[in-house]
Automatic annotation (TrEMBL), chain A:
Ribosomal RNA-processing protein 7 C-terminal domain span: 194-305
GO CC entries: CURI complex; UTP-C complex
InterPro entries (UniProt xref): RRM_Rrp7, RRP7, RRP7_C
Disordered: annotated span: 85-121, 258-282
Organism from which the protein derives: Carpinus fangiana
Name of this protein: Ribosomal RNA-processing protein 7 C-terminal domain-containing protein
A single BP term in Gene Ontology: rRNA processing
Family: Belongs to the RRP7 family.
Domain (Rrp7 RRM-like N-terminal) ranges: 7-189
TrEMBL record, chain B:
Bias (Acidic residues) ranges: 58-69, 76-86
UniProt keyword terms in alphabetical order: Nucleus, RNA-binding
Any one Gene Ontology cellular component term annotated for this protein: small-subunit processome
Coiled-coil intervals, chain numbering: none
Compartment(s) where it occurs, according to its Swiss-Prot or TrEMBL record: Nucleus, Nucleolus
Protein name: U3 small nucleolar RNA-associated protein 22
Biased composition (Low complexity): 25-37
GO MF entries: RNA binding
Region described as Disordered: spans on this chain: 1-86, 98-121
Domain Nrap protein: 229-366, 371-508, 516-665, 686-875, 878-1039, 1042-1179
Source species of the chain: Carpinus fangiana
Length: 305, 1186
């Protein structure tokens, strides 16, 4: 089967998959198509000019896989260059299509390791999978050392695709040995990791609780300040609570709910069947409802036929 | 209004974006229909959807309302009806119209307590409409009438032209007929003595009439049965003398007359050609009749195509034999010194004498009461669905008896000879009134004598005596068949008076008499083994007597173990006119059918009389033989008793039956009796007792755990409640908790007292929960060294992808092997989540996640404990429920549907059968419960009807109010309005405590494809059950079919270990519990089943848009296979980034498909193979790559 070597503005690079033991009886070839183009995010990032954007990355791909694959000699066979430029690092994006904006957030994430303190309540529980899988058909960003490298590589991929060259997906043996295994070993590790040790958990919880305490104290202090100090527009924020300090948000809500319930009750007591006209209206209402219901029932019986 | 509510609901419900995922599954659902049979049209056209209308009539506010379904036709009430009440018979709704109206007419007494508030009548409207629809559908079409009329006229001509025969002696008559016409006279037993003084002759018939349902135009075609047209040939009175009613003389003369007609019809063959045979009228051996059938070779004629038979019945004029001589109490078969009454014989004569009279009565009634004919048709449907008919085998209560009952009660039967029913009743009222009459009045103890002054004494047999015609209409009924009839009518009556559920379908639409659905145990006794002399003409009577004997012995022996017993004799024979009546053949069997009492059936000890009561003791010993033994019981009493031993209730019953048959009817009978009940042992792997013991152990462990936790000192907060929340704790899990290791622990939900110190952030709440669990685990294990009670505690993580779902649990394992998973319920989570959902500024994905989290919260912490509680109660009330649930779970697993349907849904499906058993009674055995649940699933139109399980109704706690039903329906309508394409909620399953209906099925669990497959499988299973009848092999219903799937993942041998025990070759299975503990302590939770499960779950999560995986939810079943089908929605579409599946570009030769891509199936399979690694042995690809 001849494949199109481009799709929209992407280069469609067909990758040969290693023969699978499980699929030894299958008739058709095992290939996987990678779509590549220069990375052009809406909001340019410092690295975007020297990156390529990959689509349809296999679920089990790792940085090691992509680095090996994109430097495959098959891709350079007929070019003057003796080898392809090296990939400096790879970022996978496992984001659902709905969240367009978060791609940038994810990009930034690496950069702002120090900002972690922004959200002191984020959970810091250990991951349970040794090697996370990506969403099928997912994307990745491959960053090169220089802009020129990325362009060279992209041109090489274009030529290779036109030529119909098929690089091989790296086999297990050519990958670094510290890469965790797939298969049952991975699941075994996963199941084991769902039961972290008590001491580790205790440490985590203690750390979390102290930062939570600090966070809550800070919030309380801010609230106290807010009701003493006018804001930029000259308003003073009104907060519930006693003289000693603002109330906890929960208590405020509870008080509000209680008050609402009280009002509701009052309203109910006044309404109902106290006056004659109320009784009459209620009955009319009931009749109307029944009539409507009857109509809808008739309709439904018709529909059921 | 619905739309109104729907829109309101839409606001409350999660944002609709969730349901609009770009999966293209609208395409998928239709294209999958090749493997899922009910396509859209089918679903819509099916007639068995539950009606769901709410009648508008409403008597809440005043008693001036019309209580009868808005039937306000007061003009039809004439004044002569007062005092014509037989109100002890009729006290339910049928009476209401009259009752209320009378009140209006006379005084306004405040006795309206009988008048139910008819707001509860939400289905009755639909019942009426559907009955009307049924009545238009069932009458036999009259298109072929002309040809049939012609044929009947033809017959009449032939019979009228038969040459008169001078009376001649019996010998001569017999010989002449045999020689000249090759016809044998079908003399009933005993044959006339050859030297008898009376003579047989033939004379022109006094009249020839067509009678019965054909004449009355009430013939119906229910099922494919053949319509029989009854043609009565009235013999002239000149042939008989006054005394002919004695000693079978009448029957002999009648047989000769019949033979003459037979000879003539057979020999004068006009078009259409017919075949002539003898048979008996309703199996009554005294009354042979002629059966005229179309000849099969003559296929072209209208008669052959009309599925009609003609039955020619000789009759006699009414006045020939005096009424008083043939009263049921008289003796008409004289032998020396014996004067016992011969009611059956007498009634047989009266039947012949009253044929024309009944024809007149029925026609007259049809004229005065417009609904009479329709009520007859309804009765026919009702009877035929229950397998009841006029024959001796079918119970002796059939269409004729039904019409006669109606006619009699419309004319008489009440006190002072006043009618019981009014002619103004409409057909459903008349039907209901008749059912009520049959259900409430025990005619065997309280005979009804209509049209007569003198009451007949009660003789223990059911009696509905028509004094004007001298006939006991129920003369063919035995006590057993009468009991069966009243049982059926009681069930139907219960249904008809309970308006809160569908009444139509169980009353008329369900084939009730399916052997394994209706009865719990069916046995067949070959007649020859009973030692009956098979070569006499009298066998039919002998067989009848034998059946009665067996009935009485089994009734006595089984006592309250059974609720109903029925002994059916072979059906009546049809034989050629040129042959003698056939004897009973070797194949003929007596069929014994038992319905068990769930609570008493499994009883091991039968207690008899005490040792002092010598007379009873002797009789007891006589009855039980060597099994009877004197025992001393714990309470100090010394009594005669019988001890049994068996593993399943049905098996126990079988043992008792065989023993009793052996003792009372001989070894031969016991040896050759074959019992058909369906053993479940091989399917469920454990027998009932082991299973029960295992659950008791878990319950004990749970109680201990609860006490231990409650007694624990030093927790920061007090414990408010601890709730079980797992099928293991309601005895309904598929595997025995202690017998099969490797199962997840039983869930327990624990709630602490409220405290304002809990953090306000959802993530912080999760961390606090971990802190609590750490504390709890420390307290439980460290209090006295190595752990109290030897408890082993570990904290585990779940939902690792989310920050707001419950993250942690505490696993507590007992040395016995019982293990529990404790989760902390924190009420404020709900408030926090709701706040997040209401927060308009939050990004939509975050709100969606909060919606999902809230649903999960409610499921885990609120609904599941409630469900477990309800199910535990139901299991104690219905001992067969756990077994049925387990069978159903096995069924779902063996058809690879289990992971797609939450176990709660399966449990509710089974519970529905027990909570709403109509038209049957509550199942007493797991198999019956299981098969009826399949029957329900097969008929369930889930696209248009919710499943509503009302646990409280079964508990006798009043049940749900009509307002509750209205609410449920509104919820249902709202779901359908929000999600008309059924992407999100397919099944709506609600209970009395959970009105939402989507708790267990939200998120396409099951998806539409799976639900359709479930229905298709249930239908084919029901078809098998129906076609196999008694030869049903239960295991055949559990065969996994792999034909329909696109690809199969064969698991490696190490991971695919057949059966439930997870790992026969070393990895998972531990024989000893201490080893099991050691395994848990060592942290070896990675059993093969757990690994496979984690693998499949991850794959299904990854490829949810690409393929649907089917597996048994455990380890691939016996075959070790995970099957999958491609989701056609992903076949080809415009390419874009983040398609959600691996794609390959399509060729662009014509430029048409430019920019389109297809699903790269091989790439998907390769990915699965790589991720699965050593778990998968082989992937079998079925469909062609395109």
């Amino acid at each position: 089967m001849t494949m199109a070597n481009t799709l929209k503005d992407y280069v469609a690079l067909v990758v040969d998959l290693p023969a699978s033991h499980a699929l030894r009886h299958a008739t058709s070839d095992a290939t996987h198509t990678l779509y590549i183009r220069p990375h052009t995010p809406k909001l340019p990032t410092p690295t975007s000019s020297r990156s390529l954007f990959l689509v349809n990355v296999p679920v089990d791909a790792t940085a090691a896989h992509l680095k090996l694959l994109l430097a495959s000699p098959v891709l350079v066979a007929s070019t003057s260059d003796s080898s392809l430029p090296k990939v400096s690092h790879v970022t996978f994006e496992d984001t659902p299509p709905a969240r367009k904006s978060s791609r940038n957030a994810a990009n930034k994430k690496r950069k702002r390791g120090a900002d972690e303190g922004d959200d002191p309540l984020a959970l810091t529980l250990p991951p349970t999978f040794t090697r996370p899988l990506h969403a099928p058909g997912g994307t990745a960003i491959v960053v090169y050392a220089t802009e020129r490298d990325s362009q060279t590589a992209y041109r090489a991929f274009q030529r290779a695709a036109r030529r119909g060259a098929t690089p091989h997906w790296p086999a297990q043996t050519s990958l670094p040995p510290n890469l965790p295994d797939l298969g049952s070993a991975r699941y075994k590790a996963h199941i084991g990791a769902t039961y972290p040790s008590h001491t580790m958990l205790q440490d985590l919880v203690d750390g979390y609780m102290s930062s939570l305490d600090a966070h809550e104290t800070a919030l309380a202090r801010a609230a106290t300040r807010a009701r003493a100090v006018p804001d930029a527009d000259g308003f003073i924020t009104v907060t519930r609570g006693s003289r000693t300090g603002p109330a906890r948000q929960t208590e405020a809500e509870e008080a509000l709910a209680a008050q609402r319930a009280k009002e509701e009750k009052k309203r109910k007591d006044m309404g109902g069947d106290f006056y004659r006209f109320q009784v009459r209206e209620k009955r009319k209402q009931r009749e109307r409802e029944l009539q409507e219901q009857f109509q809808s029932d008739v309709q439904r019986m018709k529909d059921l036929r | 209004m619905m739309a109104d509510r729907a829109s309101k609901r839409r606001k409350l419900s999660p944002p609709s974006e969730v349901s609009n995922r770009p999966t293209g599954s609208a395409v998928s659902s239709s294209s999958f229909s090749d493997m899922a049979s009910p396509d859209n049209n089918d679903v819509e056209l099916r007639e068995n959807e539950e009606g769901d209308s709410h009648s508008i009539d409403d008597g809440e506010e005043s008693d001036e309302q019309d209580f009868n379904d808005g039937e306000g036709n007061s003009d039809s009430q004439d004044d002569g009806e007062e005092g014509s009440e037989a109100s002890e018979l009729l006290d339910a709704d049928v009476e209401h119209t009259r009752h209320v109206k009378e009140q209006q007419k006379t005084t306004h007494t405040p006795t309206t307590t009988r008048a139910k508030p008819s707001a509860t009548k939400i289905y009755s409207k639909s019942f009426k409409t559907r009955v009307e629809e049924l009545l238009t559908r069932i009458p036999v079409k009259t298109s072929k009438d002309a040809s049939i009329e012609a044929l009947l006229r033809n017959m009449k001509d032939i019979i009228e032209k038969i040459r008169e025969q001078e009376p001649m002696s019996i010998d001569k008559a017999e010989k002449t007929l045999l020689k000249s016409r090759k016809i044998i006279i079908p003399f009933p037993h005993p044959k006339p003595a050859s030297n008898a003084q009376y003579k047989l002759g033939f004379a022109k018939p006094a009249a020839i009439n067509v009678v019965g349902s054909y004449a009355l135009k009430t013939a119906t075609h229910v099922s494919d049965r053949i319509t029989t047209i009854d043609m009565v040939v009235t013999m002239p009175s000149s042939l008989f003398t006054d005394k002919d009613y004695l000693n079978h003389r009448y029957f002999h003369k009648r047989a000769y007359y019949l033979a003459c007609i037979a000879a003539e019809i057979r020999d004068i063959q006009k078009s259409p050609r017919v075949s002539v045979k003898y048979t008996t009228l309703h199996g009554n051996p005294l009354l042979p009749v002629l059966l005229v059938e179309p000849l099969v070779t003559d296929a072209g004629s209208d008669f052959a195509q009309s599925t009609c038979d003609i039955r020619i019945i000789p009759a006699v004029q009414e006045a020939v034999f005096p009424l008083e001589k043939t009263m049921p109490g008289r003796n008409s078969v004289r032998s020396e010194g014996e004067q016992t009454p011969t009611p059956f014989y007498n009634a047989s004569i009266r039947v012949d004498s009253s044929v024309t009279s009944y024809l007149k009565v029925l026609h007259g009634t049809a004229a005065t009461s417009p609904a009479f004919k329709q009520a007859c048709m309804l009765g026919r449907v009702w009877l035929s669905q229950r397998g009841l008919d006029s024959t001796l085998r079918g119970g002796g209560f059939g269409n004729f008896e039904w019409s006669a009952l109606l006619a009699i009660l419309l004319h008489s039967g009440g006190p002072g000879g006043k009618p019981v029913f009014l002619p103004t009743y409409d057909c459903s009222q008349l039907f209901r009134a008749a059912i009520q009459f049959l259900a409430r009045r025990d005619l065997s103890k309280q005979p009804l004598c209509a049209f007569t002054e003198n009451e007949l004494p009660s003789s223990g047999i059911p009696m509905l005596f028509d004094g004007r015609r001298g006939l006991n209409v129920l003369y063919k009924m035995t006590l057993a068949s009468y009991r069966a009839l009243s049982h059926e009518s009681q069930t139907s009556l219960r249904l008809l008076t309970n308006n809160s559920q569908d009444q139509y379908e169980p009353t008329f639409g369900t084939h009730v008499c399916e052997p394994f659905m209706h009865f719990d145990l069916v046995a067949q006794l070959p007649l020859p083994s009973l030692g009956l002399a098979t070569s006499t003409d009298n066998t039919e009577t002998l067989v009848q007597h034998k059946a009665l004997d067996i009935h009485s012995v089994l009734t006595r022996g089984l006592g309250n173990r059974i609720t109903a017993i029925d002994v059916a004799t072979p059906s009546c024979a049809v034989w050629s006119v040129g042959a003698a009546k056939p004897y009973i053949s070797q194949e003929d069997v007596l069929t014994i059918r038992l319905s068990l009492d769930a609570h008493n059936a499994a009883r091991v000890v039968d207690r008899g009389p005490a040792v002092e009561e010598s007379a009873e003791a002797a009789s007891f010993k006589e009855f039980w033989g060597e099994k009877a033994e004197l025992r001393r019981f714990k309470d100090g009493s010394i009594i005669h008793s019988v001890i049994w031993k068996s593993e399943e209730p049905a098996g126990l019953l079988q043992d008792i039956c065989i023993y009793l048959i052996d003792r009372h009817f001989g070894q031969q009978a016991a040896k050759f009796s074959s019992f058909a009940y369906l053993p479940t042992l091989s399917l469920l792997k454990t027998n009932d007792a082991t299973y029960r013991a295992s659950f008791d152990q878990v319950q004990t462990a749970y109680k201990d755990l609860e006490n231990t936790i409650r007694a624990t000192k030093g927790l920061p907060l007090d414990i408010r409640s601890i709730h079980p929340s797992s099928p293991q704790l309601s005895s309904t899990s598929l595997q025995c908790p202690l017998e099969s290791p490797g199962q997840p622990p039983a869930d327990v939900v624990i709630q602490f007292e409220g405290n304002s110190r809990w953090p306000d952030d959802l993530r912080a709440v999760q961390m606090t929960k971990i802190a609590f669990l750490l504390k709890l685990s420390d307290l439980l294990t460290s209090s006295d060294g190595s752990g109290r009670n030897g408890l082993l505690a570990r904290i585990g993580m779940e939902n690792t992808q989310s920050e707001i779902l419950n993250r942690s649990f505490l696993d507590l394992t007992y040395p016995s092997g019982a293990s529990f998973r404790v989760r902390i319920h924190h009420e404020r989570e709900q408030v926090l989540l709701e706040k997040r959902i209401a927060d308009k500024t939050a990004p939509p994905p975050a709100r969606e996640a909060a919606v999902a989290a809230l649903a999960d919260y409610k499921r885990t912490f609120i609904k599941r404990p409630l469900h477990t509680q309800a199910l535990t109660r139901a299991s104690t009330r219905h001992p067969a429920l756990p077994g049925a649930v387990r069978l159903l779970k096995t069924w779902f697993a063996s058809h690879l549907l289990a992971p797609h349907i939450l176990s709660e849904v399966i449990e509710l499906l089974a519970a529905h059968t027990f909570a709403h058993p109509q038209p049957w009674s509550t199942p007493a055995t797991p198999v019956a419960g299981f098969l009826r649940t399949l029957h329900f699933i097969a008929a369930w139109d889930w696209a248009n009807t919710p499943l509503i399980v009302d646990f409280s109704a079964a508990a006798g706690a009043g049940g749900m109010k009509s307002a509750d039903y209205v609410q449920l329906r509104t919820h249902f309508a709202a779901w359908r309005a929000v999600d008309p394409a059924l992407h999100r909620v397919v099944l709506v399953v609600a209970t009395d405590s959970d009105a939402d209906g989507a708790t267990w099925t939200d998120g396409a669990r099951p998806s539409r494809v799976v639900a359709a497959r479930m229905t298709a499988l249930a239908r084919s299973a029901c078809a098998v059950v129906r076609s196999k009848g008694l030869d049903l092999d239960l295991e055949a219903l559990f065969k996994t079919g792999l034909r329909e799937y696109d690809f199969l993942l064969h698991l490696a041998a190490k991971f695919a270990v057949g059966g439930a025990n997870g790992g026969a070759n070393g990895m998972g299975k531990t024989r000893y519990k201490n080893l099991e503990i050691a395994r848990v302590e060592a942290g070896e939770d990675a059993t093969p089943a757990a690994i496979v499960s984690a693998f499949v779950k991850e794959m299904q999560g990854l490829y949810s848009d690409t393929a649907v995986l089917f597996w048994d939810g455990n380890n691939g079943g016996d075959k070790g296979v995970i099957a999958g089908i491609w989701s056609p929605g992903a076949a080809r579409r415009r390419w874009k980034v983040n398609l959600g599946y691996p794609s390959a570009p399509l060729e662009d030769e014509s430029g048409k498909e430019q920019g389109s891509a297809r699903l790269d199936r091989m790439a998907v399979l390769n990915e699965i193979a790589r991720v699965g690694g050593d778990i998968i042995e082989r992937i079998e690809v079925r469909s062609k790559e395109h």
